[in-house]
Amino acid sequence: MSNKTSNTYSTQLFKGKSLAITIATVLLFAAVLTFAIYEGTKNTVTVTANGEKEEVRTHAETVGAFLKEQDIKTGEHDFVSHSAETVINKDMAVEWDAAEQYAVTVDGKSTSAWTTKNTVSEILETAKIELTKHDKVTPALDEQVNEDTKISVEKAYEVTIQDGVEEKKVWSTSTTVANLLKENQVTLGKLDRVESEMDELVLPNSEVKVVRVEKLTDVVEGSVKYAVETKKDETLLKGSEKIVQKGKNGVVKKTYEVVKENGKEVKRDLKTEKVVTEPTKQVTAVGTKTMVASVSRGTQQKATPVQQKQQVTPQKAVAKTASTEKAAPTKTVAEKATPVQAEPAGGKEFYVSATAYTASCTGCSGITATGINLKTNPGLKVIAVDPSVIPLGSKVWVEGYGNAIAGDTGGAIKGNKIDLFMANKSDALSFGRKQVKVRILN
């Protein structure tokens, strides 16, 4: 080959290489330009996924396409700041947070909640668990937790605390009696008691009774009854009494230990007893003297010792009366009509119901309670009385009867009643029953 031919071939080869380079350069430029144009048409999206922030350029037209492009699969409980149909625009911020499942126990029953929130209150709200201020929640409502944390809810119920005489309604969760009292600031004294076991569980609508117990010392003053001593007195008429020394009760101090439950006394024990003032005994003189009343005509006949001691039986009295009546002289009309003494002044005055009797009445001995023999002294004026109203031995003026002595008693003579002695049976019968005035003269 000649030099001319060789040069021509070299020139053609160079031109071919230059063309290839040129084409390659053009293609590269076109590619770079295309890439630049492609990249320049992308939108910048700031995405926060589970708390991590990143800027991403994308040609995705919607949020849904963008998340798919980023290989982010969303669940129904996840949080996405925009809906899947939202159009992507320049400098857009998209936030995605995957939901977590939390275990919740309500009164021992298990449930769960899917949420992107992480505080206890937000989790329970998502689970639609309604709470009252008395419910017990563990952990605390404002505490932040993770999906491994177990959340417990104890629903409160009403319980009655009977504290002594005071009753109050309180709210409680599943707890013991001891904790219930502590939660409600119910403190127990040394003697107080609870009518339930302290470790017993408190159930809904149950009642916890606290009995308040107190011991007190009670000092009481009482009286000591005085004794009564009787002495015979020959200067007083038989049947009459006179207080020589007035009795007076003593004073005793008694100390008791008193137990009260809820303010009411349930036990009282006598601990000590001490006589502070000794009692003064009462001395009473009892009369033993017997006497005969004055004769109506002003003369006086004293009973002999035999007459004072004589106790005549009804049979003997009848016989004696018969012999006496034979021996006694017959009374004249003038003796029976002896004027009655005028009413004296002074003395205690009152009215009584009066009847009359004779010495020979059925069952009568003729001897009065004070020892007067009426059969041997038919002219005496003697009345039977109730000694609690008219003392035996008293001198008495009786309206329509005159001056007499209260010398007899009778089973039917009680209160304001008297019985007038009359020697003649017909006079006694004709007297009947009358209201008369009497005066006690001594």
Properties at a glance:
442 residues, alpha+beta, Ubiquitin-like (UB roll), six-stranded mixed beta barrel, four-stranded mixed β-sheet, 8 helices, 24 strands, 20% helix, rod-shaped
Give an account of the 3D structure.
The chain is an alpha+beta fold and 442 residues long. The protein folds into five domains: 55 residues, Roll (Ubiquitin-like (UB roll)), CATH 3.10.20.30; 55 residues, Ubiquitin-like (UB roll), CATH 3.10.20; 55 residues, Phosphatidylinositol 3-kinase Catalytic Subunit, Chain A, domain 1 (Ubiquitin-like (UB roll)); 72 residues, Resuscitation-promoting factor rpfb (Resuscitation-promoting factor rpfb fold, Single Sheet); 150 residues, Barwin-like endoglucanases (Beta Barrel). Strands 19-23-20-22-21-24 form a six-stranded mixed beta barrel. Strands 2-1-4-3 form a four-stranded mixed β-sheet, with no helix packed on it. A hairpin with a 2-residue loop joins β9 and β10.
Give the amount of beta strand, in percent.
35-45%
Based on Cα principal axes, name the global outline: rod-shaped
As laid out across the biggest beta sheet, the strand order is 19-23-20-22-21-24
The poorly predicted ranges are 292-338
Largest sheet: 6 strands, mixed, barrel
Q: What is the helical fraction, as a range of percent?
A: 10-25%
Query: What distance separates the N and C termini?
Result: 204 Å
The overall pLDDT average reads 81
Stated plainly, the CATH topology of the largest domain is called Barwin-like endoglucanases
Quickly give the structural class: alpha+beta
DSSP summary, beta strand count: 24
* Computed Rg: 66 Å
Provide the domain count.
5
Counted by DSSP, the helix tally is 8
Under the CATH scheme, the architecture of the largest domain is Beta Barrel
Pfam families: 3D (PF06725), DUF348 (PF03990), G5 (PF07501)
Keywords: Membrane, Signal, Transmembrane, Transmembrane helix
Protein name: G5 domain-containing protein
